[in-house]
Write a structure and sequence with these properties.
- This protein has 78 residues and is of the alpha+beta class.
- It has helices at residues 18-35, 62-76; strands at residues 3-5, 8-14, 40-44, 47-52.
- It has a four-stranded antiparallel beta sheet with strand order 1-2-4-3, covered by helices on one side.
- α1 packs across α2 (62-76).
- The model has no long low-confidence stretch (mean pLDDT 96).
Length: 78
């Protein structure tokens, strides 16, 4: 589930291992290119932390919600 604060939308994703986490990041990178909107993220072993915020607006916008929804669909449908 995504959480929201003034720093953006945040969600942590946990996978079975590093390779699965890395595969997820590659898939999200492709989505980000399609949406022309890129996450702030970090990876530690099997966990990926994502923050979405529209830096030009300095707030969460529809672009962030659309990318979050696309990422959720990716996770839900493998």
């Amino acid at each position: 589930m995504w959480s929201k604060d003034e720093g953006g939308l945040h969600r942590d994703f946990e996978f079975k291992d590093f390779t699965a986490a890395w595969d997820f990041m590659n898939q999200v990178a492709q989505l980000a290119e399609l949406h022309d909107h890129h996450p702030d993220w970090s990876n530690s072993y099997n966990t990926v932390n994502i923050t979405l915020i529209s830096h030009d607006k300095k707030q969460v916008t529809d672009r962030d919600y659309r990318l979050a929804e696309a990422i959720d669909k990716l996770v839900d449908h493998g």
